[in-house]
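User: Could you go from structure to sequence for me? I need the amino acid at each position, not a summary. Structure tokens:
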């Protein structure tokens, strides 16, 4: 069980280093892209993962949840034009962001492998893509980030929400790490690697969100 992974699941660089051994789980850091990740050995089963999500109380009309999602939507809106088409990836059981975007005048689709499986929507390209509290759940990050890139049309915008990790001591005590459905953790350097790898430009961001544009 404790055998070290041979490669980073995002950039495929070899020999990730043990970063933290806490709560019975071993986290590794990539020396190339700086992502910290939990190897597949420690991932929950799909059934247990869904059970955790089912306990989330994310309702479409919940003002508090909408305010939370506005952390990404408010800075993203100035980059978008009226009537553009978007998709929310990882919308969960309460697709509030989809409804908020529709209310703002955008044509929206959604996809979630558990709650809104929509393979047809994944065959299209969009003016913008959103992924809120999604990318930290990526079990196959190389594949999943490549999907986000394929969904983006020319000059399209990608907006993500996820917390960045800030050092080993803070990581071990971090509430975000303690969610056992979270398996990938990103540093600023990881987002810079993603931008370079996919030919994106980082338009703006904070410790909570990031907006990319496809060049």
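Assistant: Here is the amino acid at each position, in order:
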């Amino acid at each position: 069980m404790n055998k070290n992974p041979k490669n980073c699941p995002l950039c495929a660089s070899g020999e990730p280093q043990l970063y933290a051994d806490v709560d019975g789980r071993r986290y590794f850091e990539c020396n190339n892209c700086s992502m910290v990740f939990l190897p597949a050995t420690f991932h929950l089963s799909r059934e247990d993962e869904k059970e955790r999500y089912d306990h989330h109380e994310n309702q479409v009309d919940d003002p508090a949840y909408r305010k939370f999602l506005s952390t990404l939507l408010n800075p993203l809106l100035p980059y978008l034009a009226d009537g553009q088409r978007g998709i929310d990836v990882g919308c969960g059981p309460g697709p509030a962001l989809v409804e908020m975007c529709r209310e703002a005048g955008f044509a929206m689709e959604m996809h979630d492998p558990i709650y809104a499986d929509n393979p047809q929507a994944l065959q299209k390209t969009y003016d913008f893509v959103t992924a809120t509290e999604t990318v930290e759940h990526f079990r196959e990050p190389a594949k999943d980030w490549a999907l986000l890139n394929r969904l983006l049309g020319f000059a399209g915008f990608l907006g993500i929400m996820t917390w960045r990790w800030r050092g080993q001591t803070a990581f071990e005590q971090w509430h975000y790490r303690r969610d056992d459905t979270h398996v990938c953790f990103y540093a600023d350097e990881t987002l810079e690697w993603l931008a370079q790898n996919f030919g994106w430009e980082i338009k703006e961001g904070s410790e909570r969100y990031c907006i990319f544009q496809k060049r």
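One structural detail worth keeping in mind: The chain has a mean pLDDT of 94.
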